[in-house]
User: What shape does this take?
Amino acid sequence: MNSDALPGPILQSILPLLNIYYLERIEETALKKGLSTQAIWRRLWDELMKTRPSSLESVTCWRAKFMEAFFSHVLRGTIDVSSDRRLCDQRFSPLLHSSRHVRQLTICNMLQGATELVAEPNRRVLETLASSLHTLKFRHLLFSDVAAQQSLRQLLHQLIHHGAVSQVSLYSWPVPESALFILILTMSAGFWQPGPGGPPCRLCGEASRGRAPSRDEGSLLLGSRRPRRDAAERCAAALMASRRKSEAKQTARAAPATRVTRRSTQESLIAGGTDPKRDLHPPATSYEAPGTNRPPSAPATTSSASASSSTSSSKRAPASAAPQPKPLKRFKRAAGKKGARTRQGSGAESEDLYDFVFIVAGEKEDGEEMEIGEVACGALDGSDPSCLGLPALEASQRFRSISTLELFTVPLSTEAALTLCHLLSSWVSLESLTLSYNGLGSNIFRLLDSLRALSGQAGCRLRALHLSDLFSPLPILELTRAIVRALPLLRVLSIRVDHPSQRDNPAVPGNAGPPTHIIGEEEIPENCLEQLEMGFPRGAQPAPLLCSVLKASGSLQQLSLDSATFASPQDFGLVLQTLKEYNLALKRLSFHDMNLADCQSEVLFLLQNLTLQEITFSFCRLFEKRPAQFLPEMVAAMKGNSTLKGLRLPGNRLGNAGLLALADVFSEDSSSSLCQLDISSNCIKPDGLLEFAKRLERWGRGAFGHLRLFQNWLDQDAVTAREAIRRLRATCHVVSDSWDSSQAFADYVSTM
Assistant: This one.
């Protein structure tokens, strides 16, 4: 029966009886007749999903939310569609029916769902996802087998390279599997390498059909016109040749690791029979691309032959030559004697992947780590540090790539950091980058070099950078200056360092400190920053360094300082004076967890600023000293400010007396246009809130917007609190909660 012919009342009565498939199909007809199905979808969510959405989440469409969650549960096998008649219908495919509603997909643990999505029966499901999916998330990944990675490779190729996925996020991966991590990175950056034995992509055209995968697939993508290698790249190639030679010979453990310096690198090149002044070509492989001409100086050989010739050359080397560096391993192999054969086998998945992105790096093994800081810092004869020992990638050879990359709590080894930095240096489509608690350490210098190289690329779109970590080898203000210099077109910068670290010194032997091209004394050029958020570690911060950043950020509209400490109130006043003189476009200013008890005159200076529209003093101990004198001065400044729209004062122990003093801001003789007030966590009691509401009523002040009352002592008298909130809702929108102040105090005491 045609649902359009059903009268509205009849249609409304049968809607709750339909299963989700017919309910979803009849949605358009219900809307035409003025009927809403949101309540039905919400009830389905409560009864079947049995989870409550976050209080911070605003659900605009319960139908889309339910169908997206339903898709994920069916894909992972965590819901039995046959257990409920509302989910079961043999005429519909649950995955296909719900796939068009999926905007965000999460892959967890051992890549569950990836193999099912690339299977031939779900071909239409994957095609639908390619057009609907925008965000792909990975959570709590574990070690996976080669088959699962091959399925993920095909899935990413379809969803990113031929789809609409624009954001990839990785969460909580304490021990990243190198091969899997680099696979996700390279695919997100737009590179595609068919896996061993994998089916050809039917969407890539005839050019990619039937191509046999090889270890040097990366060089094939780059084409025959390879760029000339500089000293850093020759060093990297030498290390790779040394590693392959050692693996082919199946020797015992190499000598203790040595630091890769300019001299040892050159000697290792000579010992290998290679002139360091000539370009090094990549080691030969058993596969040659059709039409690829090998230079006469590099005849085609197998990897074993190359290893033997290198061995004979090393025997003829002078006795004074330095020992070869310890080979840099790509991953831990299981115990056995098949190391060399594993490299040459067609199933060497991770070998193909690493050679594809030209990774040469070290990892900790038995407490020893190969340090390649000199290469990373660009100390080799003035070489371009953005190379990081890896060849440049031509953007024209890439597929479509994502625009947002987020890494949350994913520790980056030297190997992973090199890969990320190498990809970033030419990732022009990237618009937002988030690196949160990745343990970068001295790799931050490689990151800065790659960001500087990216900024120099034509068409660079990076406009937002979010960087946070436990430690940093650079003071946070120097790091901020370096980022602003490297990315002058950046619009949003959020940076946080929790603890200062003196042990993490990235300086290489012979250098007194960080690379001079990163830390310079010259003035910061004018930039495009509009939003700057900084979270500081313990210790006083040099105000002049912060002022230098602010002076160069004339377009700044929003500034947030968290846990900032200055040597004196005068230093804080210097920062505020700089804001007034150089940041005329500043609209929002936020201070969190700062002791401003001795900066009351500076606070009054801010409240008199006629350009600011929103000010936040969060847990700043504003009223710790001289509250009786300071509160009237603060209220007087606010009454004369007609541009301030929002004031947030959470966690300042305002109390009832302070709240009643603030009520005078809304009096009849006030020119204030304040419409948002946050007084959360201020020890406010019900009787004080009731008196505040009565004063607003007495002055006849119209609705002034939002009032936030979270975590106050309103539970001490529930009746009075309800009456106060009822009166307040006649003048403003009140947001509160049912907070147990006694339990919170007990929890606070228990943690002391």
Confidence is low (pLDDT under 50) at residues 1-8, 206-397, 503-512. The radius of gyration is 31 Å. The first strand starts at residue 104 and ends at 108.
